[in-house]
């Protein structure tokens, strides 16, 4: 099954093999669309399937998360807690926990086996636009409009580390199946791959490759001041004087080469 949510407030589903349209997940008591089936009273921003594929969770600008029966399309539960739009939702690997991020700058951890209030994690200075839980269920990663990625321990609800390589809003996060790799996508089109994620060393340096503006994480038409600022920001992280790892040396070489390419491009214009 494939499911999608839209600004029309509807969750629609299809059968992947037959391409047959299966219908809408209908929240029939909507005050806004009494004559038309809708799933939420606001835009739908995120959808997630439970690990057993029996439940679909949807997030919306109406400040709620809704849980639906995949086969029946019936609304089973509504989670209220966010004070503003909910932008992202994800299940834990065992299906017992849902994590959500919202415009209210918080992450909320919902225990689906209880009916109490969610655990609230605060740390971002802007909207939380992406959340994902590691395959072992121990780590939560959040990405914000503040351009940072935060790594949280689900056991202690504490921030373990903040990653600042991006220079634009974080729009998407994904773990590899074995949990050793995290991929993050930024609003400016930059994708960073974070390698060797484990309990001993949570995140190593990003693997930087591509065009010079991609490596320096700036727009292609960025001015010289912006490019220089980005270069120095990365150099402070990976210069051998502050980071003696072998990986840092290779990353620094890529950064230097990218900045040199930018300078050559500028010199060619004069």
TrEMBL record:
Residues 211-270 form the J domain. The keyword DNA damage does not apply. InterPro entries: Beta-prop_WDR90_4th, DnaJ_domain, J_dom_sf, WD40/YVTN_repeat-like_dom_sf, WD40_PAC1, WD40_repeat_CS, WD40_repeat_dom_sf, WD40_rpt. It comes from the Bacteria. The keyword Transport does not apply. Pfam families: DnaJ, WDR90_beta-prop_4th. Keywords: Repeat, WD repeat. Coiled coil: none annotated. WD repeats lie at residues 37-78, 79-113, 121-162, 163-195. This is J domain-containing protein.
């Amino acid at each position: 099954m494939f499911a999608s949510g839209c600004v029309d407030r509807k969750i629609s589903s299809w059968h992947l093999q037959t391409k047959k349209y299966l219908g809408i997940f209908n929240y029939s008591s909507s005050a806004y669309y009494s004559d038309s089936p809708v799933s939420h009273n606001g835009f739908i921003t995120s959808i997630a399937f439970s690990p057993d594929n029996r439940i679909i969770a949807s997030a919306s600008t109406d400040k709620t998360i809704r849980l639906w029966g995949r086969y029946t399309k019936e609304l089973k539960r509504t989670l209220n807690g966010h004070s503003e739009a909910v932008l992202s939702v994800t299940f834990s690997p065992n299906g017992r926990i849902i994590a959500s991020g919202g415009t209210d700058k918080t992450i909320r951890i919902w225990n689906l086996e209880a009916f109490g209030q969610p655990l609230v994690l605060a740390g971002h200075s802007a909207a939380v636009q992406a959340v994902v839980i590691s395959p072992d269920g121990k780590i939560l990663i959040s990405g914000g409009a503040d351009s940072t990625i935060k790594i949280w321990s689900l056991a202690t609800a504490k921030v373990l580390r903040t990653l600042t390589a991006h220079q634009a809003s974080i729009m998407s996060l994904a773990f590899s199946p074995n949990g050793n790799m995290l991929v993050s996508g930024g609003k400016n089109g930059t994708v960073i791959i974070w390698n060797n994620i484990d309990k001993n060393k949570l995140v190593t340096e990003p693997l930087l490759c591509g065009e010079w503006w991609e490596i320096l994480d700036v727009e292609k038409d960025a001015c010289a001041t912006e490019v220089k600022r980005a270069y120095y920001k990365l150099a402070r992280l990976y210069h051998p004087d502050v980071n003696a790892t072998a990986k840092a040396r290779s990353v620094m070489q890529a950064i230097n080469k990218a900045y040199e390419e930018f300078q050559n491009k500028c010199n060619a214009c004069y």
